[in-house]
Amino acid sequence: MSTQKKSLSELSSDLEKRYLVSEPKEIPGEDTISLLDRITLEMPVALAFHRVLEECDETPLVDLGAMEGMGRVFVKDEGQRMGMKAFKVLGGTYALHRLEIRGELHEGDTVTTFTDGNHGAGLAYAAREAGYKAVIFVPKVMVKSRRERIEAQGAEVIEVDGDYDTTVAEVMRVAKENGWVLVGDTSWEGYEQVPRDITTAYSTIFSEALRQMKEEHGLEPTHVILQVGVGSFAAGGMAYCLYEQVPPPRFICVEPTDADCIYENVRVGGDGTLACQGKTESVSAGLNCGIPAYKTAWPILRDYCSAYVALGDGWPISAVRELYKHGVIAGESGCCGFAVLMAAREDNKLREDLKLTDQSVVLVVNTEAATDPDLFNEIIGQEVVVSNGS
């Protein structure tokens, strides 16, 4: 993995940015309408489940105040979710619950998945709490600290010699051979229900955030910026905002330039099955996915995003530092929504094309805390996070 060979200064110098602008479709595709209907129907069920889930307290909404030329900025800090340093535990817990309800998961079963880190840790937590064995497949290049987070939840971790998408293919094969229950957050033909449950679960974040913005500040977002790996998080957030807010905010999705699968499909008019052109080796490890969740996320992103942004590694590194000054501990994937604002602050054309003004109200989500403590401390320049438990 090339990011491990590059120095921090080399990573920081990668300030590439590219973007496409769009207008949400007045008449979305039939696949989008069907997907939104299913997610919207389930959102209250997911929210009710999370409200009674032990330790699932609301995460903070941090008011960063005004950012010149871009209005007021709020950060929903999912790095504080259930002690797991990331939002994905919401998906893992809800997915297992729904599998149990449907009679597809039974005592003594083994659950399995593929992960760049956070989804695997979230599923391992959920499996431990519910009494199931978990086997989590990870790319061999995953940093030690992220593997240890998964193992700390009692899961068995199996390394795959390849990238995230190679890992997906391997776990599909092994799960079928062993009769394990696959709990994946990306989708393909014939595998849609579980990733749709996970997408639906992420709507809880936005239910909390929009209520917090309204009750604590009397505001609604004009812009919501969403990280994209396979797209499940973004699709869940967009589905909730489309349901709750009329007119809806402008949605901007952001990916690494080296893992820009949504951007690439939009650029060439693809159907959501095309792989990115990069090597999926960006510093934002949690977003290093080569192919979208084309059955359970892609249609929503295709039809409702106003812009598709891809950023080089230097932008999230700068965003980690900037958010730390505001008291937010953000990982290199967690900060990417805010990184868009940093790029726009220095690029008038980008800011104009994103329709950001001094009157804007922007919601971003810190989707993870410092899940790679060594890298975080190097970025900050001091030992702030001393272990995975800090």
Helix content: 40-55%
Low-confidence stretches: none
Beta-strand fraction estimate: 15-25%
H/E element sequence: HEHEEHEHEHEHEHHEHEHHEHHHEH
Please tally the β strands and state the result: 11
Molecular shape = globular
Q: Give the CA-CA distance, first to last residue.
A: 26 Å
What does this entry look like structurally?
This protein has 390 residues and is of the alpha/beta class. Helices cover 42% and strands 16% of the residues. It contains 15 helices and eleven strands. The chain has helices at 8-12, 30-52, 89-101, 118-130, 144-151, 164-178, 193-201, 203-217, 232-244, 261-268, 298-304, 314-325, 336-345, 348-353, 373-380, and strands spanning 17-21, 61-67, 71-77, 110-114, 133-139, 156-160, 181-182, 223-227, 250-256, 305-311, 361-366. It has a seven-stranded mixed sheet with strand order 1-10-9-8-11-3-2, sandwiched between helices. A hairpin with a 3-residue loop joins strand 2 and strand 3. Helix 2 crosses helix 7 (193-201), helix 2 (30-52) crosses helix 9 (232-244) and helix 7 packs across helix 9 (232-244). It is globular and about 55 Å long. The model has no long low-confidence stretch (mean pLDDT 94).
Topology:
Layout: H1 8-12, E1 17-21, H2 30-52, E2 61-67, E3 71-77, H3 89-101, E4 110-114, H4 118-130, E5 133-139, H5 144-151, E6 156-160, H6 164-178, E7 181-182, H7 193-201, H8 203-217, E8 223-227, H9 232-244, E9 250-256, H10 261-268, H11 298-304, E10 305-311, H12 314-325, H13 336-345, H14 348-353, E11 361-366, H15 373-380
Parallel strand pairs: 3-11, 4-5, 4-7, 5-6, 8-9, 8-11, 9-10
Antiparallel strand pairs: 1-10, 2-3
Helix pairs in contact: 2-7, 2-9, 3-4, 3-7, 4-5, 7-9, 8-9, 9-11, 12-13
